[in-house]
Amino acid sequence: MPAPALRPVPTSGTSRPAVGGGGRPAGVPDRALQDAWVARLRARDPEALREVVAAFSERLTAVVSGILKDRDAVEDVVQETFTKAWYRIEAFHGDSALFTWLYRVAVNGCKDHVKHRSRRPAGSLQDLGPDPGFAAPSAPPMEGLARRELRLAVREAVARLPQRFRAVLALREIEGLPYQEIANVLGLSLGTVESRLFRARQRLAALLIRSRTAGARGDVGA
Amino acid sequence: MTHDDTFRPRLTREDSRALDGLMPADGPPRAGDGPGSARERTRDLVREALDLWSAESRTVGQAVDPERLAERVLARVASAPEGSHLPPAPVSWGYAAAAAALIALGLGGLRLARPAGGLPAAPAVASQLEAEGLAVLRRLELERLAVVEGR
Q1: Which of A55, A149, A208, B3 is deepest in the core (most CB within 10 A)?
Q2: Residue B37: exposed, middle, or buried by beta-carbon count in 10 A (0-12, 13-18, 19+)?
Q3: B13: burial class by Cβ within 10 Å (0-12, 13-18, 19+)?
Q4: What is the pLDDT averaged over residues B8-33?
């Protein structure tokens, strides 16, 4: 049975762009500027590296923090991404935009980190706790209890997703990349991207509802 | 968010597409899809959760100091001599051990599979091949001489 045709509909209340098309997300410098950075990086221009870091560090850090459970490692992976951009710029063939390549390097850095990280148990709650040394997102002071509970439940549920699911979710939800760009970054087909997004959200819903049900039972028992 | 044990997740592919701003062009509503249905509540829950998670991740991104980060990267690349590259990935000892085990198994299998009389030793095979090669070369040289001398 063929998949039904899809049409974009306006998104409400979010900054995510529509999925269709291959346009760059809002705030990403245009392709000409990115190509100029590539040329200057190849010429070993440190100022170009400063400009690239200034342009992409916030976005890359947000995406990497969404993928990694280990908050301590976020800054290391982002720094490693820009270091690789400097050393391996010759390996960048220009068949995609610089920012797509940087995301690819960052996602691969996350995979390498998970592969080689210290032997802490997967899904450890230690990984989810705030890191006093680096950008710990703290709850807003006036946040309600229910909202805070949901925030914690979401953090724990996302951490329990397989990394391949977190990667597509981060690129779509945090960065707002269209499906085609996510496929380019991760080296997947469009169908696989859509399927992983669906399965990630489905599993997230199940985890959240299970957590809520457990919370309700705890409330009753208390 | 209310506590309700009867609430079960029913997120569908269409819901996931709808969360991305896409909807089936010809998707008739299903039974029980009205406002407040389990399906709609699941979709709202996932939307709210992902919005919270995204906002939190963006907060982490906003806390980065790009200038300090750039300085650290530049200091790192400056400390390495020009033309050098990143250190190679660490050896995976698991793969190395597996490769060694496979080689050992292969060698053991070869020893077991050797016929009773045994294969000729490697130097003997080499000298035999060398002798045959020399014979061929000598024959070619003789034929060339015969052509040159018009015989």
Answers
A1: A208
A2: middle
A3: middle
A4: 67
In 3D, which of A9, A23, A2, A10 has the Cα closest to residue A179?
A23
pLDDT, position B82: 59
Q: Is the model's pLDDT at B142 over the cut of 60?
A: yes
In Å, how far is B128's CA from the nearest CA of chain A? 48
What's the rounded Cα separation, in Å, for the pair B46 and B77? 42
User: Given a cut of 50, is residue B120 above it in pLDDT?
Assistant: yes
- For the segment A74-103, the average pLDDT, to the nearest whole number, is 92
The question of ipTM being above 0.95 is answered as no
Check residues A112 and B28 and name the one with the higher pLDDT.
A112
* Residue in B45, B47, B50 to test binding to A, most A beta-carbons within 10 Å: B50
Give the CA dihedral A136, A140, A144, A147, nearest 10 degrees. -50
pLDDT at A185: 94
For chain A, give percent helix, strand, coil, nearest 5: 65, 0, 35
Of B94, B66, B60, nearest in space to A73 by CA: B60
Any A CB within 8 A of B58 CB: yes
Predicted TM-score (pTM) of this structure: 0.67
Burial of A108 (0-12, 13-18, 19+ CB in 10 A): middle
The answer to whether A53 contacts B59, with C-beta atoms less than 8 Å apart, is no
Residues 113-142 of chain B whose Cβ lies under 8 A from any Cβ of chain A = none
> A193 in helix, strand or coil?
helix
Q: Report the alpha-carbon distance of residue B94 to residue B107 in Å, rounded.
A: 20
Q: Which two tokens stand for residue A104?
A: 């690819």
Decide if B69 touches A, using CB distance below 8 A.
yes
Nearest partner of B46 among A206, A221, A47, judged by Cα = A206
